[in-house]
Amino acid sequence: MFRSSFQRTLTVLLFISFAAVATAAQNGPASLSGKRLKRIVVRGANVVDGSGKPAAGPFDIVIENDVITQIVGIDPVAAAEGRARRPEKGDLDIEAEGKYVLPGLINLHGHAHDGRAGKPMPIEYVMKLWLACGITTVREAWANPKILEYRDKIASGTLAGPRIFAYGGFPGPNLNTAEQVRQRVRDLKAAGYDGIKLYTMDRDLMNAMMAEAKVQGMRVMHHTGVEETNAWDDIRLGTTTIEHWYGIPDAAIISGRQNFPSYYNYNDEVHRFRYAGRLWREADWEKLMKVLDGMAEAGVAWDPTLVIYEASRDLQRAQTNPAFAEYLHPVLEEYFRPNPANHGSYFIGWSTTDETFWKENYRIWMKALYEFGKRGGVIGTGEDAGFIYQLYGFGLVRELELHQEAGFHPLKVVQHATSNGARILGKEDSIGRIRPGYKADLIVVNGNPLENFKVLYPPGTAMVKDGKVVQGGGIEWTIRDGVPFHAPTLAKEVRDMVAAAKRPQALRP
Ligand SMILES: [Zn+2]
Question: What Cα–Cα distance (Å) separates residue 353 from each residue in 98, 307, 350, 361, 456?
């Protein structure tokens, strides 16, 4: 009985793997997208390993199940003579000659939205965009029980998406005492959350929260706003990351408080974002350097999410992203429209003056970020998309461009988005690098992202090929945990999803 059922299982398994390989032969490698394979070989790639080291190659990369098992240099002389020793064929062979391979990107500030402003939006839309943009890991920055379900479905292979680290939102309702706060941390831990996303809390309660988080071994990402606490509290308490930026310049204002006008109301988002644009200029530079040194010494990392404020310095750029035509879901489009009821949709009366202040704000912010890196601080990348005209995935690629604009070499930018992200998640031993023994999280890129990060966007970029202008670039494969996802196929599925949602019958209430 045991034997025969075992044999049956074996036959079925053999048949499945044979069928998969046979289909690949008929329909091309794209038909293997999303399938767990035993062996993948990426051939002849230039590798940017994520550590900050220069690119090198060509290499053959062997993936077995979910792990990188070999990286083999190809001897050019032997290759030219046709006697180079190359790895055995895989279930999927990816020809990567002239292409670049990077570790999968880590999005430290993602929101797995399955709806906006009460209207449903398919979770597959977000997940496929993330994968199509090369993201293999997402730190979910306001996780709820549904996010835990998505996380587990992705891990078990029933939902295609990046690996999720679910950081439970904090505070919640009725958290007024230290004991209530401590209990909430224990509840999050017991419910299976991977960490905590702290929004805003008074100092005594933050102290209690951080103490209990330490006991429970939970990492904390802190949206350090303009509140009672600031970056000095993160330094004192050892927060894992400061999200965004406000609490950093806020900790460096000589008078202790930004010079708000008398009518300022923090809950009015037009006020909040307008005067946030005048916060960096009020920080004292010398004091600011002390804050940055304090963060670097205490090991408080910084996830600046430069991308999510870009509309504030150039509204028209944000509103007219050419990718919107095909990639912006109508539910998200509606959410983006100026509306005081929706978070981040604050562009009502947004002025030349506001943009001018924000442009200066960015210059100081980027300079401070660069200084932080120089002083040994750990910098990661996050997008916060789904708000303020930012598309999932596209937002993270834009974040990379902005880190370059801040002054970092593209190799450092890739490091921010890969091995630094892994370090911030406490997973530096298993993800974020192209190295034998590490999880097989990698992307195969048509083009050189060190020259042009735009090749990472799904539409790619215009280039000349054989004397003709063609659309080139784009990620070809995103491999997560050894599962290969054909990025152009995912991008097409997203475009189809958006087109279907825009059809008149779909839009009828
Ligand atoms: Zn967020």
Answer: 46, 20, 8, 12, 33
